Amino acid sequence: MVALHLSFPTTFNHQAKLPIQGLASSRQKHVSKLHSSISPGCLFICNSEQLQHPTNPISLFPPVDQSVAAIVFGDGSESRLYPLTKRRSEGAIPLAANYRLIDAVVSNCINSNINKIYALTQFNSTSLNCHLSRAYSGVLRGKDGFVEVIAAYQSPQDQGWFQGNVDAIRRCLWVLEEFPVDEFLVLPGHHLYKMDYQKLIEAHRNRKADITIMASSAIRDQDPGLGLLKVNTENQVIDFRIKSDREPASSISAEALRRSRNSTYENISSMGIYLINREVVARLVNEHFPEANDFANELIPGAISTGMKVEAYRFDGYWEDMRSIEAFYQANMECIKKSNIRYNFYDRDSPVYTMPRCLPPSLIRDAEISDSVIGDGCIINRCKIKGAIVGMRTRIGDGAAIQDSVIMGSDIYQKNDIESSGNEGQAKATPVGIGEDTQIRKAIIDKNARIGKNVMIINKDNVHEGDREGNGYIISGGIVVVLQGALIPDGTIL
Amino acid sequence: MVALHLSFPTTFNHQAKLPIQGLASSRQKHVSKLHSSISPGCLFICNSEQLQHPTNPISLFPPVDQSVAAIVFGDGSESRLYPLTKRRSEGAIPLAANYRLIDAVVSNCINSNINKIYALTQFNSTSLNCHLSRAYSGVLRGKDGFVEVIAAYQSPQDQGWFQGNVDAIRRCLWVLEEFPVDEFLVLPGHHLYKMDYQKLIEAHRNRKADITIMASSAIRDQDPGLGLLKVNTENQVIDFRIKSDREPASSISAEALRRSRNSTYENISSMGIYLINREVVARLVNEHFPEANDFANELIPGAISTGMKVEAYRFDGYWEDMRSIEAFYQANMECIKKSNIRYNFYDRDSPVYTMPRCLPPSLIRDAEISDSVIGDGCIINRCKIKGAIVGMRTRIGDGAAIQDSVIMGSDIYQKNDIESSGNEGQAKATPVGIGEDTQIRKAIIDKNARIGKNVMIINKDNVHEGDREGNGYIISGGIVVVLQGALIPDGTIL
Amino acid sequence: MVALHLSFPTTFNHQAKLPIQGLASSRQKHVSKLHSSISPGCLFICNSEQLQHPTNPISLFPPVDQSVAAIVFGDGSESRLYPLTKRRSEGAIPLAANYRLIDAVVSNCINSNINKIYALTQFNSTSLNCHLSRAYSGVLRGKDGFVEVIAAYQSPQDQGWFQGNVDAIRRCLWVLEEFPVDEFLVLPGHHLYKMDYQKLIEAHRNRKADITIMASSAIRDQDPGLGLLKVNTENQVIDFRIKSDREPASSISAEALRRSRNSTYENISSMGIYLINREVVARLVNEHFPEANDFANELIPGAISTGMKVEAYRFDGYWEDMRSIEAFYQANMECIKKSNIRYNFYDRDSPVYTMPRCLPPSLIRDAEISDSVIGDGCIINRCKIKGAIVGMRTRIGDGAAIQDSVIMGSDIYQKNDIESSGNEGQAKATPVGIGEDTQIRKAIIDKNARIGKNVMIINKDNVHEGDREGNGYIISGGIVVVLQGALIPDGTIL
Amino acid sequence: MVALHLSFPTTFNHQAKLPIQGLASSRQKHVSKLHSSISPGCLFICNSEQLQHPTNPISLFPPVDQSVAAIVFGDGSESRLYPLTKRRSEGAIPLAANYRLIDAVVSNCINSNINKIYALTQFNSTSLNCHLSRAYSGVLRGKDGFVEVIAAYQSPQDQGWFQGNVDAIRRCLWVLEEFPVDEFLVLPGHHLYKMDYQKLIEAHRNRKADITIMASSAIRDQDPGLGLLKVNTENQVIDFRIKSDREPASSISAEALRRSRNSTYENISSMGIYLINREVVARLVNEHFPEANDFANELIPGAISTGMKVEAYRFDGYWEDMRSIEAFYQANMECIKKSNIRYNFYDRDSPVYTMPRCLPPSLIRDAEISDSVIGDGCIINRCKIKGAIVGMRTRIGDGAAIQDSVIMGSDIYQKNDIESSGNEGQAKATPVGIGEDTQIRKAIIDKNARIGKNVMIINKDNVHEGDREGNGYIISGGIVVVLQGALIPDGTIL
Q1: What DSSP element (H or E) covers B26?
Q2: Hey, is C28 helix, strand or coil?
Q3: Shortest CB distance from A412 goes to which of D6, D129, D413?
Q4: What is the rounded distance in angstroms from the CA atom of residue B265 to the CA atom of residue D311?
Q5: CA end-to-end distance (rounded Å), chain A
Q6: Which B residues in the span 125-144 are in contact with C, Cβ-Cβ below 8 Å?
Q7: Predicted confidence (pLDDT) at residue C434 exceeds the cutoff of 90
Q8: Which of A410, C206, D270, D322 has the fewest Cβ atoms within 10 angstroms?
Q9: Is the ipTM of this complex over 0.90?
C-alpha cells in the first residue's frame, strides 16, 4: 500500500480544507465586531478575504455534497473555438498537455465537495461524454456522486435543439430535479480558474439570496456577453445589463471602477457563474420567463425585476475565459510561465483531475527544453523546445525547433515510432508528429496532425485571420492552428 | 439518468445525517444548561441521546474523512466459526443471503464518512481480499478513500504470524502511519450492528480522551474476553478487567448493573471497539508495552495503569457478536423477523454495501414463502419456505420444505438448472442445491452443497455438538452445519 | 477468491464456445463433400445447423474482437412504446425485473466477443447513456472494448436530428470509422433473443458478402417495415421489398413460405439486422445514396440494385421484436413460463449483463407465489402473486393479488418501507408500491408508481386502446399501463 | 469518443496478433514438408521462428483465455533486491519511471490473452496487493478475468510460511483449482521480457507435453539456481540439473552450446518458467513429491524421473532476470538506450500496463536532457540529465547534474514544489527530491528520498559492496542505493 495509494492526484491533505460546515466556529469570533466594521469598500464577500457576514450559523445548512448540484455547460455558442471544435465539444479540447478543457471546472467541483455534476451539451456530445465518463466515474462513484452528460434530445414535448443556456435548463429540469438538492451551481465549462465553491455557497446561504452571481474584480477586457453588475453597499445587485455592441468593451475602465469603489454603487463584471436556489430556477424558467433563452440577457435582469434577492460574490483570483483561440492559447501559456504561475497543476490540495492513463515515460534523446511542459509518453529526439506545451505521445524529429506553441499530441503510437528518427525510408508517408528539421512558432497543432520535414510554421506573412482549412490550417489572432489529423507536407512554409 | 442512478444502495439522503462538524450549532443551544443538568445517571454519552458535553466546539476538528482510519480485524481466534471458516476468512462468510460478514462493519464506516479502511487478516486472506476489493473499490475510490487488506507477511524484521490484535497493529504500524490521520478506530469485523461512528469520534474529541472504548449496555451473555469496564461519574474508565474463567459469565447480573447506575461507579461490558489517538497507539505498542499482544488483556489495562485518559462511550442499539455458530445463526435470523427487525437492510439512510452483482431475478414456480429472505437469482420450484435465509442462486427442488435455516446458495449456475425440476435422468450426479422432497430444519447449508432428494436434515438425534466432517457436516449448538461443497446423498437422514 | 469471483454473471465456461477462428478444423472435415451435398432446401447457413460453406479458411480472418463493431440503435420510431418512453429512451425501459431492454442485444455482443459497441440515440438519451456506462464500463474495459453512446448532436455541418437509421450512421461515420474494423454489425436495440453473432460473421466472411441480412424463419406476424427477402438457391438476396400497407401482414402465409422452400426462390422476413463491410457502408451512405435515410426502404434495395453481394443468414431461434406494448408485455411473460422457456436468463454460458447492484435480498412475509420472477430487494407482505414480473424494490401490501402483470419496481426505498404494512397512519400519502388489498391483472406498472389500497387494475370496461394519461395510465392492446411515478388513489377501479 | 478512447495503452491493433487458434491454417501449409525438413539444429520451437510441429490441429484446443491460468511469484528469495524490498514486495519495486517490476510479466499475460492471474506472495504483500488491484482490476474485469493476490496465510491445516515456490502452489492448490483451467503457467515476477505465451501454449499442446520449460538461448551469466536442461533432438528434456556452486557459471560456454547444436543433445538454460498441465501439478505436489519445495531442485528433476513428458521451448528474445541490484539497474538502463532498444515500452501491439494515473505534465524550466526517460508530473529546473530514469513527481533543483542513474520519484507533491527552486527559506527542512547543485552518478535513488543541496552521490571511494543503511544508503555492485525516504543532508559526498 504505502507507496502506492498515492498515485492518484489528491492524496495527503495534511491541511485539508474544512468543508463548509467547519467554518462555523471561526466565524463566531467575528460576530461581535461585524456591524461596526463594515465599510463600503470592503463589502464584498471575497474568496481571498475572511468571511464577513456570518449572520446565519452555517452549520444549520446541509452538507454541500448532499445539497448542491453543478450544471456545467459543455459547449458554448457554436464556433468561437473553431476549428478545435470541428470534431469535438468545447469541453473535450485538449488543454495543457494532459487535460481537457472541462477538467478545470469539474475539478473545482470535486475539490469543493460537489459531487453531483450534470454536463449539458449539444455539439459533438460524444467526445465530451466519453471523456467525462472515463475520467470521473471512478472519482465520483463514491456514495452518491456522478457526472451525467445530458445531450440535447428529442422527446414528444421538445423537438428542437437547446436555444440557449436557460432553454437547456428548462428542458432538462425534470432530470435535474430528480435529485433533491437545494441549489444549482451554473458553470460555463470553458473557464480556467481555481476556486473553492464552498465559500460562494456559504455566502449565498448566509445572505439568504435567491441568486448569487460570481463577479470578477480582475479588470480587463471582459466578455461583454456576460454582463455588468451594479451593486449597492449591501452587496445586492441593483442592476444587470449587457454591454451594447456600440459601447466599447473597455468603456468600464479600470479607473472608473476604482473610483466607484468609494461611492454608493459599484460596477463589476459578471463571470457567468450563478448559484441559484432550486425552486427559484423552476419558477424563473417555467413561470416567470417561459420564453427566456439566456441567463445574462433575460433571466438575471428578469429576476431582479421581479424583486428577487440577487447578490454578488467577488472572485479575485486568476480566471481565464477561453472564449477565443487567443484566450485558449493564453490559458495554455499560463501553465509554463517561469514565475508567478497563476494556475497551478501541481498543488496537492486542489488537484486537477482528468482521464487516468498509463502511458510510458517520455523518452528524450537529446533535447534542450525550457519553460515547457511535456505530457506523458512523448518521444523527443534531438531538438529544441522553448515555451511549449507538448501533449501526450508527441513525437518530435531530429533538428526540430518548437517555440511558443501548443502541440496537442497523438492518440496512438505508430509502428516504428521509436526508430523513426533519422534516416528512415524516404518513400514513407508522413507520420503523425513533428518531422525532422521543422520549425514551429506561435502555433497550435491539433491532435494527430502529421507535420512533415523541413516545414516552417511561422505565420510568415504575418496574417491575423485566415481560413486555409483546405490546406489543413487556419490562422486566428495571428496564431496558426493546424487541424486535427491534418497533413502538412515536407518543406511547407506557412 | 433519472431512474437509473439510484440502483446503488445509497441514493436519496433527503435527511442526510449531518457530518460531525455540522453538530456545532445544535450543541450551542444546550451550552447554557449544561453544567446544571448533569446527573450521575445520565453521564454517558450515548448514541441515542442528545450530546451532553460539547465543551469543545467540534467544528475546530478536522473532518472525519481526513482524520480517522478504521482498522478492521478480518478474522478472530482461529476456529470459533469453524467449519464456515474452513476455506475462507471469517469476514468472508456469507451473511443474510446477499452479504458477507464483514460488510456490516465496513458499511458502518462508509456511512460514518470514514473512508480509509485497513483490514488486517492472516487466515485464508485471499477470500477476504477478493471480496473487499471487488465490493468497495468503487464506493471508496473517491478523493482519497481505500480499503486495504493487510495480510500477515514476512519481512526481514518480522518472521512470524500476528500474535494477537496488538501485535498485528504493531507490525503493520509503518503501513498504518503512512496516512496522517488523528485517530484509529479499531473494529472487530464479525459484529452485526449499525452505528454512526461520528458520534463516538465527537465524544472522544470533546473529552480529549486518549482512548475511548465502546461499551454495550445491552445486558446479556457477553463475550468474557472483551472485558468489563468500571467507570466513574465522569465517564472515565477506572478499571478494566477480563472476567476470569471461573467467574460465571452471568455474574454481572442485569440487576447488579441496574443498581450500580445510581452509585458512584458502574460496571459495563466492553464491545472490543476502540478509538485511539494515533500517537497513543505508537507509544503504547512500541514504547510502553512492546511485548503486549492483546487489547483487552494487556494494552487497555496497561494504558489505564500509565494514567492515560481512557473513556467509555455507551452504545445501546442492537449488536450481535457473531463469535459462535449459534450467534451467527441468530444474527441471520434477525433479518427475517416478522416484527421489530433490529438490523434493517432496507434503510436508505444507512445502506449495507457489498459486492455488486447482476444476477437474474429469482424464479419462483410455485411456493409458499413466509418470514424469509430470498437472495438474487434463485430458482425455486414447488416448495415451502418458512423462516429461512435463501442465498444467491439457490436451487430448491419440488416438494422441498425448509424451515428456520440458512441456505448460503451457490457460486454458479449449473447446466439445466432451469429444467432440473421433476423427473430428470436418474443416473445424474446430485446437483448443487436442495433436492426434491428434502426437508431441512434449523440448519446452515454452506455454499455449493449438494443436498440430494428425500434428505432430512433435522438433527434427528437431537445432538448438541457433533463432528461428522467426514460425512460433510458438523453439529454445533444443536445446529446442523453442512460444509461448503459437501454432498449429502439421496435419502440421508441427519 | 474462490467462492467470490463468481458473483459476476459469466464465470465457469466449462464448455466455452469456441471463438470464430476455432471453427476452422471442424470445417475442414466437410470440405470434400461440399459441392456434391448441396440441396436447395438446406442452402441457408443457419445458426442451429452445421456450417456448410467453409470455402474460405476462417482462420485467415482477424479475430472478432478486433475487427467488428456493433452499432446498436437505442431507440426507434418515436412513440411505439409510449408511455414507457415518456421519460426514457427505448433501450432504458426496465425488462424482466432486473434488466433494461437494451441489455439483451448488448449481452449478445459481449457473449459473441464483440466489444466495440456504439449506441446511437436521440430520444431522451441521458437515460440510456447512464445505464450503458454504468452497466458495461467494467465488463468492456478490457483491452480495447467500449460502449459509446452517440447522441444526436449539432455540428457546423449537421444541424438537424437524425432522419433515420441510415442518416444516423452517415452523420456519425467519422466517429464510427475512427477504429479500423472490417465490418459493422447493425442491431436494433429492442429485440429479445440470444445469438452468437460469430456464426453470422463467419458466414458473411466465407461467402465474401458485402452485406448479410439476418432473416427469421419464425413464421409469424412480422413487422412489415423490416422487409421481405427473396433469395435464390445460392443464398443470395435477389429482391428486397417492404410490404405495402395494403398488403396484409399475413399475406406471406406460412404455407406459402413452406412451399417456396422447394422451389428455386424463397421468401423470408428480414429481422433488421445487418452485417456490412466497413467500406461498403461508407460507399453506400455517402456515394451511392447520399439522400437515403432508411435501411429497409432505401439502402438495402439500393445495394442490390448496384450489384452488391447481399446474402441472407437465417436465424431460427426465439426472437421477439418489442415494437409495441403488447410485444413488450409478451417478452416479459416469456421469462416466467412454466415450461419451455425460450429466453433463458439463467444460462451460465450466455449470461445477460446489466447494471450491477447490491440490494438486500427480497423479504417475503407470507406469500403464495407461482410462475413469477422476483427482482432484487423487494418487500412482499401477505399476498398472492401469479404470473408476474416483480421488479427491483417493489413493495407489495397485505392482501394484494397480482396476476399476469409486469411491476417495474422502485428506484428508492422509502422511510418505513419495512414497517409500512398493516395499520399505519391513515393520513399518510400513498407510498410507492402496491397498496393493501389491491388487485392487478394484465397490467404494466411503470417505475415508482404509487398504487393505493383497495385499487383494482383489471381493465374493467375491457377497453382495447385508451388514453387516460391525465389519470396516470393508458390502455394499449388491452393492457393497462400505469405511468412512471403515477398516483392511483385508494379505491380506484380501472 | 474518437480522440478519446485511445488513451489507454492498447488502442489500435491494426495488425492484431492472431490468437492461438488462428494459427491453424498457416500451419496447414507446412504439414506436408514437415517430416522431411527436420534437421537437428532447428528442432526447437522458438518464438521467432515458424511453428514446426503442428501435428495436432490447434483449433481443437480451448481458447487460452478460458483454459490457462498464470501463477506469478511476486517475490523471490528474501533479500536479493534489498534494500529496494525493505518496505515492499519485489513485484512492487518501481521500474522505468512509470511502472512496477511485476508489470512486465502481467502485461505479457494480458497481451497473450491470459486473463486469470494469481500472484503468490508472502513478503510485504500489501504493497503488491495494492498495486495489482488498482492497476489491473479495470483491464481484467472483462468477462472472467482477474488478478488475485494470494498472500501466505494460516489455516487449520497449514501454520507456516511458504517454504518455496512448490510449497506455495501446494498450499494454494485448493484456490488455484477452483477455476477449471487446463494448464498453469508458472512465472517468476521479476523478469523483464516480452513474449506471446500463446506460442508456448500451442507448442505444449501440440507436443502433448506434461510440462514445458521455457529455456533461454541468450548465452550469458545465467542464474545457476534456475537449472540446466539437456534436450534431445525431439526437443524433450532428458536431464535437468542445478549447476553446482563449484562449477563456474560460465562453464557452459557459448562456444560449447553452439557446438552442441549439431550433436544429438544440447544443453540450454532454464528460465524458471513452466507450463504444466493442471492435473500434473496436483499429482506432482501432492502424490509424487509431497515434500518438495522447489521447482528447479526437486519437482522438475522428479517429474523427469517419473517418466513424465517434459519438453523445452526456446525463447531467444531480450530477457533480463532482475535477481540482483545490478541486474535491476541494467534492466532500467535498457529503457533509455540510444539505439537497439530491446524492451520497447512504446509498442502499441504489446503495451505495458500499470496503475493508471492522472498527473500533470512534466514541467521543465531549463534543462539539457539526453538518453533519458522522464516520468509523469516531474518538476525539473535548470539542470543536466544524461542516461537517467526520472520517476514520477521527481523534483530536480537548479544546477543539479544526474547521470547514469535511476531516480524513482515521489509519491506526493509537497507544498511549494513549484516555487521551491532557487533562494527559498534557508531554515527549511530538506524537501523530497534532488537539491540544488547536487551531482548523482550511477546511483539508484528510491522513492521519497530527500537529497540535499551540493550533495555528490558518486561513490567517491569506489566501493563495490557496502552497508551504510544507518546513513540512508547501501552500495551494491558499485551502485549507490539511497533508501526510500532517506535524508542525505546538504553537502554530503558519498
Answers
A1: helix B24-30
A2: helix
A3: D6
A4: 77
A5: 52
A6: 126-127, 129-131, 134-135
A7: yes
A8: C206
A9: no
